[in-house]
Amino acid sequence: MAQKPSIPKGTRDFNPQEVAKRNYIFNTIRTKFEIFGFQPIETPSFENSDTLMGKYGEEGDRLIFKILNSGDYLSKVNEDLYTSKDSNKMTSSLSEKALRYDLTVPFARYVVQHQNEIDFPFKRYQIQPVWRADRPQKGRFREFYQCDADVVGSNSLWQEVEFVQLYDAVFSALKLEGVTIKINNRKILSGIAEVIGAQDKLIDFTVALDKLDKIGEEKVKDEMRSKGISEEGITTLQPLFTLKGDFGNQIAELKTILKTSEEGKKGIEELEFINTGIATLGLKTATLQLDVTLARGLNYYTGAIFEVAAPEGVHMGSIGGGGRYDDLTGIFGLKDMSGVGVSFGLDRIALVLEDLGLFPETITNTVKVLFINFGEAEAIASMKAIKSLRDVGVSAELFPDNKKTIKQFNYANKRNIPFVILLGESEMASNTFTLKNMGTGDQQEVTLEELIDVLI
Amino acid sequence: MAQKPSIPKGTRDFNPQEVAKRNYIFNTIRTKFEIFGFQPIETPSFENSDTLMGKYGEEGDRLIFKILNSGDYLSKVNEDLYTSKDSNKMTSSLSEKALRYDLTVPFARYVVQHQNEIDFPFKRYQIQPVWRADRPQKGRFREFYQCDADVVGSNSLWQEVEFVQLYDAVFSALKLEGVTIKINNRKILSGIAEVIGAQDKLIDFTVALDKLDKIGEEKVKDEMRSKGISEEGITTLQPLFTLKGDFGNQIAELKTILKTSEEGKKGIEELEFINTGIATLGLKTATLQLDVTLARGLNYYTGAIFEVAAPEGVHMGSIGGGGRYDDLTGIFGLKDMSGVGVSFGLDRIALVLEDLGLFPETITNTVKVLFINFGEAEAIASMKAIKSLRDVGVSAELFPDNKKTIKQFNYANKRNIPFVILLGESEMASNTFTLKNMGTGDQQEVTLEELIDVLI
What we know:
Chains A, B: L-histidine binds at residues 102-104, 132, 146, 150, 296, 300-301. The structure is a homodimer of 456-residue chains. Chain A is α+β, with helices and mostly antiparallel strands and 456 residues long. Chain A has helices spanning 16-35, 49-52, 57-63, 79-84, 87-94, 104-113, 158-173, 186-195, 202-209, 212-215, 217-226, 231-236, 238-241, 247-257, 262-281, 346-355, 376-391, 405-414, 425-430, 448-455; strands at residues 39-40, 46-48, 66-67, 97-99, 122-131, 143-152, 180-185, 287-290, 304-309, 318-325, 339-344, 369-371, 396-398, 419-422, 433-437, 443-446. Chain A has an 8-stranded mixed sheet. Chain A has a 5-stranded mixed sheet with strand order 13-12-14-15-16. The first copy, chain A, has a 3-stranded antiparallel sheet with strand order 2-4-3. The longest helix of chain A is centred in the first third of the chain and has 20 residues, at 16-35. Chain A is globular and about 95 Å long.
C-alpha cells in the first residue's frame, strides 16, 4: 500500500487535544444531567431494521446506514426480486440491521421493551454516536454524537420548566453566556391554522412562517398564498409578523388572535405556566424568548417546542432543541406515554466555544512530568520516583530511550509537558532531583517529598 | 406492532445501574492510563473496507460487519458478477465501508495517516466499541468495548515493565487482588522451535504447547508427533513440560535448552530485564509469572507476550492481554515502528467484579433527594430549594405530578433515592423542610442551610 491510508468521508479521527476538548463538553453536560436527576442508559449501535425504518420519513429511510447480512446473504434473495436488480426493493433482503440514526427512536424502543422494569416517570439521558448517510459538509458529519435528556411518563409542565433551567445550567457551566432559549408550542401553531381556516395546511403554513427571519414578511405571505391560504386568513395573522416585545406583550397579542381556538388557548396557558415558573426561579445567563415562528420537528412535537440559539454575533445554527411529544412510544405499541426532552448539539457547541476562546486553558490530558533518560542506572532510579508520583495521582513518565537530551527536551516541548526532571549521576549521589519548569525555564533541586509537593 | 420490540442478537441495552458499573471500570482504567502518561484518541466507527479486510485472516474477514452502500448500489455491480450471485465476490461491490473489528488496526492506520503530526514515542489509549459477526454466546457479544493502551516508536524494554505495572495498578485500583500477569516471549518460542529443528513448524508447535494445561503432557506430545516433530526434538524439550518454580529457576532451565539459539538467548535477556525491573519496583497485588506455553496472537507479536488471569478460584478466561509487535504499521507502508500494547477485557472484568462482589456499594447514579409534590404552591417552593441544592452540586428533583404521597414514596424506594423531602403547608409556613432518610426511616425538620449541610 503505497499511498497513505484514509478514513471514510464525513468521519473524523480525534487527536488527544480534540478528545480532551470534547470530553470537557461531555463531562459538563453529563454532570448537569445527573444533578437534575437524569440517569444514563446505553443502547446498541445497530438496531433491527424494522425498529428504525419508517420512523424518519422517506428521506430518513434513505439516510440510514444498513448493515449487509453475513454469510451467503445472496442465497436468501428471492429469484424474481434478484432479477429486478432494484436497489430499493432488495435492501430488506440484504440487510436486517441498521446503524442508529438518532437516540430518540432507540429510546422509545427501550422504554417499550423494558416497560416492566422501569419506574415511571423515567428520566434518562443518553450520550452516544449516531450515523447518517448525509452529504458531508462543513459542520455536518456522517458520524456524530447526540446528547439527549428526556422524561417519559408525566404530563407535568414542571418538566418543561426544568429543561429550560437545564439548558441555562449547562451553557452557564460552559461559560457560554447569553444564549437564547426560544420556546413555542405546537398548540399555538395549530390554533393559528384553525383561526385562519387552514387546519389542513398546518405544515405548509408553519414551513412558510418559519422562514420569516430569512426571507421577510412579503415573501412569507407570497408563499402562503401559493399554498392556498386565503387573503382573509393572512390578514388575520398580520399581528404575527410584527410580534415583538417581552413575553407578556406577545402573549396578549396571541390571546387576541386565538380567542376563538380552544387548542390555541391551551397552548397559551402552557406557555404562561412555563414563563411564570422561569420568571420565579430565574436563569443564570440565558434568556427565554417566545418565538411563534419556531416549528422544528412539528410532526413530532405536540406541546412545547424548544430551540437554543448561540449568543448574538456568533454565526451558527441552533445549538440545541427539543420539545414535548405525546405519543413517542405509540410506534412500538405503548400508548399514552407522554414525554418531553432536549438535545445538545455537541459539534456546534464545540465550534462556538473554539470561536469564542471559551475552552479553559487547563484542559489537557498530557502527562505532568517527564523524566529524562540518562541510561540504565538512572532509569531505574527514575522509575522508582515515577512510581511514588503515580501512587499519589501525579501523571509521570520516563522517556523510554537514552537519546540525546535535546531530543528528549524537544519531545517534552512538543507534548506541552509542563515539568521535566533531570536525574543524573550527581542527583543520584545526593538523592535529589533537578526539576525544570518548562514554562518559566526555572530549575530547582528538590527532594522526593518536595517534588511530590510541587507536582501534586 | 403488536409484539414487543427487540434488539439484534449479541447486542445489549444497558440500564442506569449497568452503565454506572461499567463507567466505574472505564473510569478506573482511564485514570490509570492517564497517570501512566497515555493520551486518548478516537477513530471512526467505520473504516474504508480496504483498511480492515485482509488484516485478521480469512475468519476475521468473514466476521467483519460490512455497511451496504447508499443510493442505487446495485447499479454499480458489474453484470457478469451480478449474474454469478456469489455473495463472497459481490461484497466488495456492494460495500465500501466496514465496522471496526478491533482497535489495533485503526490505531495503525491512525499512526500512519497522522505520522507528521505525532511526536514519537506515541503513547495512546483508546476505549471504544468494536463489532464482530461472531456467534453470540455467554460472555461473547457482537458489540463490545475494547480498552487498549499502546506505545509506538520505541524499542525500550522499559515499556514492557510499565505495562506490567499498569496492569497491577488497574487491577489493584479495582480491588481485584491476586491476578496473575503471565509473560512469555516470541523469541523464546522461536528459539525452542529452532533447537528442536522445527522452525518451519513454529505455529503447530506452539499451538500444541499452548494446550499443556488443558490436555496434559502426553497428548501434547502426541499432537507434536502428528505434526511431524521428531522424537529427538520432543526429548530435547522434555524439561519444558515440567518447568516449575520461580522466574530464576525457569530461566536457568531455559538457558540450558536454548544455549545454541541466538534468538532464544535474546528472548531470555528480554525476559530477565523485565523481571529485574519488576522485582526492583515491586507490584501492589499482582504476580508476574513466566509461562513458556503462552502463545496468544503469535503471528502478530515479535517480543513479549502478556496475558492476565483472574485470581485463583475464579473461572474466567483471560481478562487482559497484549505484547510487543515490531511491524504494526508496516501493513500501511510505515516501516520500523516498533510498538507494544495491552488490552483490558471490560465484559469479563465486569463479570469477575460482579461474582466477587467487588463493585463499591456507592456506585450509583440515582438522584440524592426527591421532593414530594403536594400541589402547585408547594411545587414552586420546592423548585426554589431544588435550585439551591443543584447550585452546590447536589442532585435533586421534584416528583413532577401531585399524585398520592404513597405513590411518590414508592417511586423513591424503587429508584433507591436515599432522601425525601416533605414540603407541605406547615413547613412552608415555618420556612423549613421535613427531611426523611429512606434508609433509616428517620425524619427531621431542617432549614435550607441545614438541608444543604446534610446533603452536600
